[in-house]
Amino acid sequence: MTISHEQQVEELRAELRVVLDANERRQIAAELEMALAEIAVIEAEQDGRISGEPPF
C-alpha cells in the first residue's frame, strides 16, 4: 500500500464529513469505496492471498 492511497482515503473521508450536496456525497462515497477496494487488492497481493498475474 502506498502513502498516496492512504492519503486519498483520508482526504475523501474528510470531504464526506463536510459535504452537504447529496449528489456530491454519493460521488465521494463511490470514490472512497473504490480507493478502499484498491487498498484491499494491494494488501491481498502483498500477503500472497491473490496473484497479480492473469489466470491464463
Describe this structure in words.
With about 55 residues, the chain is mainly α. The chain has a domain at about 10-45. About 75% of the residues lie in helices and about 0% in strands. It contains 2 helices and no strands. The protein has helices at about 5-20, 20-45. Helix 1 (about 5-20) runs antiparallel to helix 2. The two termini are about 25 Å apart. The relative contact order is 0.16.
Defining traits:
56 residues; mainly alpha; 75% helix
CA-based shape: elongated
Radius of gyration: 14 Å
Number of strands: 0
State the secondary-structure class. mainly alpha
Mean pLDDT: 90
Write the H/E string, N to C: HH
* Unreliable runs: none
Distance between the termini: 26 Å
What can be said about this structure in brief?
Helices cover 75% and strands 0% of the residues. By secondary structure, it is mostly helical.
List the helices and strands and how they pair.
Elements: H1 3-18, H2 22-47
